[in-house]
Amino acid sequence: MGVAPLAMVLASCGGGVDLTYLGVPSASASVMTSDSMSVKADGASFATISIEVRDNNQNPVRHGGDAVSLSTTRGTLSSILDDNSGVYRATLKSSQTGPSTVSGNIDGQRITTGDVIVTFVP
């Protein structure tokens, strides 16, 4: 069993100490969403899939660099964009109609808060 790193930032603030907790990413607390649940199956229209990385206390993790991966049962996923904010994005498009289930992983652990289903329509 590995040991998870814990990081805290200390900064002087008007005579006191300001503690900011930098959470450890948790696949069981992170959330995956789509900006659209229905997309035209024309091979060009797309849905944007977003993964918000959270820690075990449901706090957003406001840094990038995590190993995030996605898979789909239909269509094509773009490369994942990491903008170093703790939110990762990819686009999904298809020329075949039907539902597409997108699942994700963070640092090798499956996101367990739910897959995203996007339906491609004629």
In DSSP terms, counting alpha (H) and pi (I) runs of 4 or more, how many helices? 0
* Cα-to-Cα separation, first versus last residue: 48 Å
Percent in strands: over 45%
Assembly annotation: single chain
| Structural domains: how many | 1
CATH superfamily: Immunoglobulins
The overall pLDDT, averaged over residues, is 87
Q: Report the CATH architecture.
A: Sandwich
Shape: elongated
Number of strands: 12
| Helicity level | under 10%
Low-confidence segments: 1-13
Structural class: mainly beta
CATH class: Mainly Beta
- Using only C-alpha atoms, the radius of gyration works out to 17 Å
CATH topological fold name? Immunoglobulin-like
Give a short account of the largest sheet: 5 strands, antiparallel
Q: What order do the helices and strands follow?
A: EEEEEEEEEEEE
What report would you give on this structure?
- With 122 residues, this protein is an all-beta fold.
- It has a single domain, classed as Immunoglobulins (Immunoglobulin-like), CATH 2.60.40.
- The chain has no helices and twelve strands.
- The chain has strands spanning 7-13, 16-22, 26-34, 38-40, 47-54, 68-72, 76-77, 81-82, 87-93, 98-106, 109-110, 116-121.
- Strands 3, 5, 7, 8 and 9 form a five-stranded antiparallel sheet that branches. Strands 4, 6, 10, 11 and 12 form a five-stranded mixed sheet that branches. Strands 1-2 form a two-stranded antiparallel ribbon.
- Strand 10 and strand 11 (109-110) form a beta hairpin.
